[in-house]
Amino acid sequence: MRIFIRSAAQISIQNPLCDEWFENPIFYSQTHNRSIDPDFKSFIPIMEARRMGRVMKRAIVTSKSVIPEENRATLDAILTGTGLGSVEDTEKFLNALLKNDEEMLPPSNFMNSTHNTIGSIIALNFKCHGYNLTSAHRGTSFDSICFDAYLQFLKGAKNILVGGHDEMTADYFALFDQIGFWKKEPFTADTIKESSSKGTFAGETAVSFWLSAEDGADSLCSILGVDLLYKPSQQRLQESLDTMLAQSGLTRDDIDAIVLNCNGDVENDTVSREVAEAILPNVQQLYYKHLFGDSFTMSAMGLYISAVCLHRREIPAHLIYRSGAGNKRPRTFLLHNHYQNKDHSFMLLSV
Question: Helix and strand tally (H, E) in the chain?
Answer without folding.
Answer: 14, 11
